[in-house]
Amino acid sequence: MTSQLPATLGHIVAIGGAEDKTSDLEILKQVFALAPSGSDDVTVIATASSIPDQVLPEYEAAFTRLGARRVHALDIQDRRQAADPGNVELIERSGVIFFTGGDQLRLTTVLGGSATLKAIRDRLLAGAVVAGTSAGAAAMPGTMIYDGNAMDALRKGAVKMTSGLGFVDGLIIDSHFLERGRFTRLMEVGASNPEHLGVGLGEDAAVIIHPSQILEAIGPGHVILIDSRNLASSNITELSMGEAVAIEHMVMHALISGHGFDIEARRYLAPAPLKASLAETT
Predict the structure, then answer these.
(1) Quick one: pLDDT band at residue 282, thresholds 50, 70, 90?
(2) Do the domain assignments include residue 92?
(3) Number of H helices and number of E strands within the chain?
(4) Helix (H) or strand (E) holding 6
(5) How many CA atoms lie within 13 A of 8 on its CB side?
(6) Mean pLDDT taken over the chain
(7) In whole angstroms, what is the distance from residue 171 CA to residue 141 CA?
(8) What CATH number is associated with residue 110?
(9) Residue 7 located in a structural domain
(10) Is residue 6 part of a domain?
């Protein structure tokens, strides 16, 4: 069965949270470098955040330092603002659209079905970069995790999922993955949704999702992949809610910067094969 990833022209960058915003800016530098030529405006959307007055200036300073011509800081807090033509116009000018962290359910509630979200999708199809950190990363797929106890999530129904922003399908993204011990969250997701590739992002780590359906790890942290496509067996359908899940043959990969993964082929890519795969599609 083929992947459900859309044939976007732009890149998606999902960041695990706590990325460097004041020193080398390693991840943010690569986000900005992916912007289409001549599209040097950046829009930062702080809808997910409960402290937008603190986080927006940090990203304004970081992207300005990286060479952004203008940084549009959007504190969209309700659906009226999500429908504002002025906000849509700023997005339409931008080569990078960036979502801050916070609460991913707030992101989907405020932006779902809005003119702002449509404009972001249109910009992605036109070649812009759509990036997000923490909750902004978790909300990117068509299906997202919004709750689940990290300590004991390998139980039927322990992980709560709902519709995400729909920039990419076939993936489930979890952030702060290593630091908050969220392995069992993606394992429970994989047991009930074997076709989905679980992407666990450590802090100060990210993946570039290339239009060619190649994942590329960047940043100094780890990216963990949970691949359940060839799951041999699971007892999840036999269980009552809350009971412990058994899984046979779930595959895990740990990626570092310069390594990648072919989503369609389900193939790990060391640095040389990754470069070759990306070269074939450029």
Answers:
(1) confident
(2) yes
(3) 9, 17
(4) none
(5) 27
(6) 95
(7) 6
(8) 3.40.50.880
(9) no
(10) no
The tokens describing 49, both together, are 């955040």
Question: Could you give the CA distance from residue 80 to residue 78 in angstroms, rounded to a whole number?
Answer: 5
Which residue type sits at 33? Answer: A
Q: How far apart are CA 152 and CA 254, in angstroms?
A: 21
Give SS3 for 59: helix
Boundaries of domain holding 210? 12-280
Q: Which of 141, 101, 105, 75 is nearest to 21 (CA)?
A: 101
Cα torsion through 108, 110, 115, 118, rounded to 10: -10
Total of domains in the chain:
1
Q: What is the mean pLDDT of residues 209-229?
A: 97
Q: Is residue 4 part of a domain?
A: no
Give the C-alpha separation, 145 to 54, whole Å: 25
Write the pLDDT tens digit of every residue in 136-153.
Answer: 999 999 999 999 988 899
Distance between CA atoms of residues 247 and 278, nearest Å: 34
Contact 198, 174 (CB under 8 A): yes
Round to the nearest angstrom and report the end-to-end CA distance of the chain: 25
| Distance between CA atoms of residues 249 and 251, nearest Å | 6
